[in-house]
């Protein structure tokens, strides 16, 4: 695992917990509607296309969200982050097609960017730590002289 600066490590943990726990909470709430009435956010296009009731569809959405959140919190954080990113973009498209809820669509796209950032941070975190190459080591040591070998001509 590559060493991350403590500030980046904190950011990784905050994003991981937020993008893992958030979908789990909202996924569970698809069965109880305590946070909101989720069906009102469902696009009329979706209700015409899917062969199940809006309530059943939202229950399926809840399962997907719970699973996505668990994947983010598991050892497959990078995959889960991309999944959450795509899922949130899909939710934003759904919200846009309702003809209202543009503010929520914008919020979901911004959260999707956080999912992408988490995936990128996880990719760096998963890289094996490497020894700096000779040129990098010289530069870090203060030898900033440009040599013919350092500059490709």
Q: Keywords, please?
A:
153 residues; single chain
Shape, per Cα inertia axes: elongated
Strand portion: under 5%
Provide the domain count.
1
The run of helices and strands is HHHHHH
Low-confidence stretches: none
Counted by DSSP, the helix tally is 6
Mean pLDDT: 88
> How far from one another are the termini?
35 Å
Sheet of most strands: none
**Cα-based radius of gyration, to the nearest Å:** 22 Å
* Structural class by SSE content: mainly alpha
Q: What's the total number of strands?
A: 0
Q: Percent range for helical residues?
A: 55-70%
Walk me through the structure.
- The chain has helices at 6-29, 44-49, 54-73, 77-96, 102-126, 134-140.
- By secondary structure, the protein is mostly helical.
- It has one domain (6-140).
- The model has no long low-confidence stretch (mean pLDDT 88).
């Amino acid at each position: 695992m590559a060493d991350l600066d403590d500030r980046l490590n904190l950011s990784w943990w905050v994003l991981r917990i937020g993008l893992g726990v958030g979908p789990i909470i909202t996924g569970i709430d698809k069965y109880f509607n305590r946070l909101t009435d989720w069906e009102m956010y469902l696009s009329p296009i979706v209700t015409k296309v899917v062969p199940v009731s809006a309530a059943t569809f939202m229950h399926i959405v809840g399962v997907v969200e719970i699973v996505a959140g668990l994947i983010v919190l598991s050892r497959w954080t990078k995959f889960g982050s991309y999944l959450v990113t795509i899922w949130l973009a899909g939710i934003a498209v759904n919200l846009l097609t309702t003809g209202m809820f543009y503010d929520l669509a914008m919020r979901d796209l911004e959260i999707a960017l956080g999912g992408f950032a988490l995936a990128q941070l996880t990719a760096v975190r998963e890289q094996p730590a490497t020894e700096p190459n000779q040129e990098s080591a010289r530069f870090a040591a203060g030898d900033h002289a440009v040599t013919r070998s350092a500059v490709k001509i």
